[in-house]
Design brief:
Layout lengths: L6 H10 L9 E10 L3 E10 L4 E3 L12 E5 L4 E18 L4 E18 L6 E9 L1 E2 L4 E2 L2 E11 L15 E5 L2 E5 L4 E2 L38 H16 L7 H11 L4 H21 L2 H9 L3 H6 L2 H19 L8 H10 L4 H15 L1 H16 L5 H25 L12 H28 L7 H19 L16 H18 L41 H11 L3 E6 L4 H11 L5 H6 L2 E6 L12 E6 L2 E5 L2 H13 L3 E2 L1 E5 L10 E2 L4 H17 L2
Parallel strand pairs: 14-15
Antiparallel strand pairs: 1-2, 1-13, 2-6, 3-6, 3-8, 4-7, 5-6, 7-10, 9-18, 10-12, 10-17, 11-12, 14-19, 16-17, 19-20
Helix pairs in contact: 1-18, 2-10, 2-11, 3-4, 3-11, 4-9, 4-11, 5-11, 7-10, 7-12, 8-9, 10-11, 12-13, 13-14
């Protein structure tokens, strides 16, 4: 494709205007400061919108797109040292990239010191910056911008006008005049018209008026608050079955229903008792909100700490030992005694302290379960306090419901199983689960430290061994300290033992190579698929080898009479990798990608350079220029002009003659949303044949 192919993009981009879909989260300002000893400092200040970030210049290979600042001048300059970054820095581990990622939010300055080779004449100093902007759902195409300022060595300040006749502020210090624009420059300003020639704009593409309205994906909150509420709820139900809590259920309910002369008052007090249990568990999350308010990024920082994850690994092993019965984890008895004594106050206050006493004395069984929820939240999300609040609320809610319902319907107590050895069995099973979860934290420490010792297959083997131990225990082949010497193996234990064998069979399939990733239900726990003895870069994407050129792919679509799925992606796009691993690989989606569409993956950060006659520099106005010199630049502009969007991943279904079938979708999304988008477009195309 020739140089002229890109110029029409600029024309149409101006005519169409910039809608809300073209995101503009970064604004730059370029200054040059005069320093002693005839030195200067070029400063690019990036102001970043809320919830967006740009990567640091220091990133590990094969991860995100590092920010790169270059300084140059035809008049000659000598650089002093390296580029320095100053800003709100975030350092966290990326599961998708399997590496430690450094990025900046809000505001960051990129500084480079230099000297003029000839300090007696003016010099035009050009700052070039290449960067990528991301939020939690999407990454925008990498951008390369140029800014130009003039340094005029002089003994007195004089007014200076830039090349485009824009008035500038004149600063005279240390016998030099430095000119710099006073306005902030938008990173995606509208380019000026350079020519009216045909190019990459596809006349048949009209993303605003697709052939059908089906399959429109709705944006959803990424935080799994309700998931943690359910996890906490089920954790609470499990805790109720442990020896520390279960025997107290009939005693407590009977106290309220039989210990009160007024039956209605007894039931009311029991419900209040359950409510206080809920409140107490929720209050346990308050310190985490206080910590988060003092240092908002602290949980994100500690969750990617090697030592923190090793600490959680050791703690979970400690919890497992407690569940196995080798020792008990208890709070100091003085705390329980004081709380129990406070119950004598009677009334609402007495009921509150009864609930508090229950929470305290049951800690030896509930502590490890609550610790599991804490570890999962701290290392699994940026919004730790809210996740913990929902998890603890779910935990307390399950207890409140059980105690409240049994108080309202005390006859149900007769149907509860009697206390016995089965409660210890529940504890031991939880111990094996704690062992399995401990490996998750060891795996994260391994990934963050880049030792990559605990590969996916080794992790699976260890889980198989743990599950074998669980199965042997359930069938009575091994015993723990609190087990009966001659336990009677109930039918329930045998059934769970059979389920354990099934889980072992399920895990074994993950040890062998396959066309698509196995063990998808464990994708958030197992090491990434690229941390594997079996991974080979030559295998392509899930066994598929998509085209990387739209025009080549559309010809294939015509030949095969299939719709074309355009995948605007990036090598450094974390959400793109998450979509491929967790959504594309699903058994009800992958066959559609393999058989029903032609796939074109257009990498907007492809650094391979275009032929020289196709490279250009687009004047963005206000002293900045956007370079079009790589394949990534080409597809980035192609996406912006044809689909008025600059985020990745971005998916578009078009017919072989280039018509948009249904509304495009962007960002990481649940499987059902992507499936709905894909299936509706494919079905529409087939029905029109």
């Amino acid at each position: 494709m020739k140089f002229k192919s890109f110029l029409i993009l600029i024309l149409l981009f101006l005519f169409q205007g910039i809608s809300a879909q073209i995101k503009d989260p970064v604004k730059f300002k370029y200054n040059i400061n005069s320093l002693p000893n005839n030195e200067y400092e070029a400063v690019l200040t990036a102001t970043i919108d809320k919830n967006w970030h740009i990567y640091s210049k220091d990133l590990p290979p094969d991860s995100g797109i590092p920010t790169e600042m270059k300084l140059k001048s035809k008049d000659g300059i000598d650089l002093i040292g390296k580029v320095v970054e100053v800003g709100k820095k975030h350092d966290e581990f990326s599961e998708a990239f399997g590496a430690q990622i450094v990025y900046y939010s809000d505001l960051v300055l990129f500084k480079q010191k230099f000297k003029l080779k000839n300090n007696s004449k003016p010099a035009n100093v050009v700052a070039e910056i290449t960067y990528q902007t991301c939020d939690d759902r999407v990454c925008l195409a990498p951008n390369t911008l140029e800014f130009e300022q003039k340094v005029v060595p002089t003994s007195a300040g004089t007014a200076v006008v830039t090349k485009d006749d824009t008035p500038t502020q004149t600063i005279a210090t240390n016998d030099s005049v430095i000119t710099n624009p006073t306005e902030t420059i938008a990173a995606t300003a509208t380019p000026t018209i350079q020519a009216k020639q045909e190019g990459l704009k596809i006349s048949s593409i009209d993303h605003e008026n697709p052939l059908t309205d089906c399959g429109v994906a709705k944006q959803k909150n990424n935080e799994n608050f309700w998931t943690y509420l359910l996890l906490g709820f089920f954790g609470g139900l499990i805790a109720l079955l442990t020896p520390c809590v279960f025997p107290m259920i009939p005693l407590t309910v009977s106290f309220f229903t039989k210990g009160s002369k007024d039956k209605a008052k007894g039931k009311r007090d029991a419900i209040i008792y359950g409510f206080f249990i809920l409140i107490i568990f929720v209050l346990l999350s308050v310190p985490f909100h206080i910590i988060d308010g003092i240092a908002g990024n602290i949980f994100n920082q500690i969750s990617t700490s090697v030592w923190l994850n090793i600490f959680f690994f050791v703690i979970f092993l400690f919890f497992a030992g407690s569940f196995f019965g080798y020792y008990d984890i208890t709070l100091p008895s003085s705390i329980a005694n004081k709380s129990s004594k406070a119950e004598e106050a009677g009334g609402i206050i007495g009921i509150f302290f009864m609930a508090l006493t229950l929470v305290i004395v049951s800690f030896s069984c509930t502590g490890p379960i609550l610790g599991s929820l804490l570890g999962s939240a701290v290392t699994g999300s940026a919004n730790v306090p809210m996740l913990l609040t929902f998890a603890l609320a779910g935990f307390g809610l399950s207890w409140a419901i059980v105690f409240g319902l049994l108080a309202l319907f005390p006859q149900a107590l007769q149907s509860l199983p009697k206390s016995g050895g089965w409660m210890n069995t529940v504890k031991v099973v939880l111990g094996f689960i704690e062992l399995g979860l401990a490996l998750k934290f060891l795996s994260k420490a391994d990934l963050v430290s880049k030792t990559f010792f605990l590969k996916r297959e080794l992790f699976i083997v260890l889980w198989i061994l743990i599950t074998i131990g669980l199965v042997l225990y359930l069938f009575g082949k091994i015993r723990f300290p609190h087990d009966d010497k001659n336990p009677k193996i109930s039918l329930t234990r045998k059934l769970f033992g059979v389920l354990g064998i099934g889980f072992i069979i399920y895990l074994i399939q993950g040890l062998f190579p396959a066309e698509r990733p196995k063990l998808q239900h464990l994708s958030g726990i197992l090491p990434p698929i690229n941390v594997s003895y079996l991974h080979n870069e030559k295998d392509g994407i899930l066994g598929m080898h998509p085209s990387h050129d739209y025009f080549e792919a559309i010809e294939i679509a015509k030949k095969e009479n299939k719709p074309l799925l355009i995948d605007f992606t990036g090598y450094g796009c974390e959400n793109c990798r998450k979509m491929e691993e967790f959504v594309w690989s699903e058994p009800d989606i992958l066959p559609m990608l393999q058989n029903d569409v032609v796939l074109a993956s257009l990498y907007v950060d492809d650094k391979e350079e275009l032929p020289e006659n196709e490279q250009t520099s687009v004047d963005m106005g206000n002293g900045q220029k956007k370079k079009i010199k790589t394949i990534g630049d080409k597809w980035s502009l192609f996406q912006q002009v044809n689909f008025n969007n600059n985020s990745q991943p971005h998916y578009v279904l078009v017919t072989p003659d280039g018509k948009v079938i249904n509304h495009p979708v962007s960002g990481y999304m649940p499987k059902e949303e992507f499936k709905n988008f894909l299936k509706c477009g494919i079905d529409f195309f087939k029905n029109k044949q």
